[in-house]
Amino acid sequence: MKKKNISTYILLLLMLIFAAFVLFPILVVLINSFKGRLFISSEPFSIPKGDAFVGMTNYTEGLAKTGFFSAFGYSLWITVASVAIILLLTSMLAWYITRVKGIVTQIIYYALVFSMIVPFQMVMFTMSKIANMLSLDNPVGIIILYVGFGAGMASFMFSGFIKGIPLALEEAAMIDGAGPVTTFFQVVLPMLKSTAVTIAILNTMWIWNDYLMPYLTIGTNYRTIPVAIQYLRGGYGAVDMGAMMAMLVLAMVPVIIFYLVCQKHIIKGVLAGAVKG
C-alpha cells in the first residue's frame, strides 16, 4: 500500500513538473505583454513594475497596428466553418466506409490514413498554386483546403469509434422504418459526441494557430490572426515585441477557453477512437 502511495506521489510530482514546463512559456508571454519593449529584451523573466510596467499600452498599440478585430473575424469564420464541415463530412464518410465493406471503401480508408503521414511542407507550394488556379485563395476557398487536410485524422478517429457501435442498433432503426440518413443523424451521430468533441478541439487548435496555409493561399488580402501578428515585424529585423506579446495573449484566449470548456471529453474521445475495432 505504501509503495502504491509513493508511486502515486512520484507520478503527481512528474506531472506537476511537466505542467510547469508547459505553462512557463505562456506565463512569460503574459508578463511581457505589460512591459516596455526595452525591458522585454533586458529583463524577460522579471515581473513588470516601475518603469517596466506600461499597462495596456501594448494591447492598444497592437490592436491598432494589426487590425486585430478584422483578423479575428477571418480566423473565427475560417475555423468555425472548417471544423463544422470536417465533423459533418468525415463522420458520414467514416460511417459509410466502416459499414460498407468493399475494395473502394478500403482504398478510401487507406488513402485517408496515408494522408495523415504526408508532411504539409511537401505539398504546400503545389497546393498554393492549385488553390490560386481554382480561385480558392479567399476565406471561403481555404475552408475546402482545411477540410481536405483534416479529413484523414478525423475519419480515422470516427471509424475507430463506429466499429464499436453495435450494428443491431442501426438494424433496429431501419426495421422501424428509418432510412440511412435518419439512422445516421438520430442513432449514430449522437453516439459520436465524445469523439466529435475531441476532433473539434484538435482541429480548432490547428486551424486557429495555423500560419503557413493562410499566408500561402490568402496572403495579406485576408489576414488571419497569426498572419496579422507576424506583420508586427518591421524592416531590418525590427520587432515590436510588446505589441506582439499582447496580441499573442489575445490570440491564445479563445482557444484556451474553448479547450477548458470541452477538455473533459478529449481523453474519452481519444481512447474511444484508439482502442475500439
Descriptive report:
The protein has 14 helices and no strands. By secondary structure, the protein is mostly helical. It has one domain: Orthogonal Bundle (MetI-like fold), CATH 1.10.3720.10. Helix 1 runs antiparallel to helix 13, helix 4 packs across helix 7 and helix 10 packs antiparallel against helix 13.
Salient structural properties:
14 helices; mainly alpha; 277 residues; MetI-like fold
Q: What's the topology here?
A:
Layout: H1 2-32, H2 37-42, H3 57-66, H4 68-99, H5 103-115, H6 120-133, H7 141-162, H8 167-175, H9 180-191, H10 193-209, H11 212-217, H12 225-230, H13 241-262, H14 266-275
Helix pairs in contact: 1-13, 3-13, 4-5, 4-7, 4-10, 5-7, 7-10, 7-14, 8-9, 10-13, 10-14
- Major sheet description: none
Q: For the CA atoms, what is the radius of gyration? A: 23 Å
Q: Assign a percent range to the helix content.
A: over 70%
Distance between the termini: 36 Å
The chain-level structural class is mainly alpha
* Number of structural domains: 1
| Record field, number of beta strands | 0
Strand/helix succession = HHHHHHHHHHHHHH
In terms of per-residue confidence, which ranges show pLDDT below 50 for 5 or more consecutive residues? 273-277
Strand residues, percent? under 5%
Supply the number of helical segments: 14
| CATH structural class | Mainly Alpha
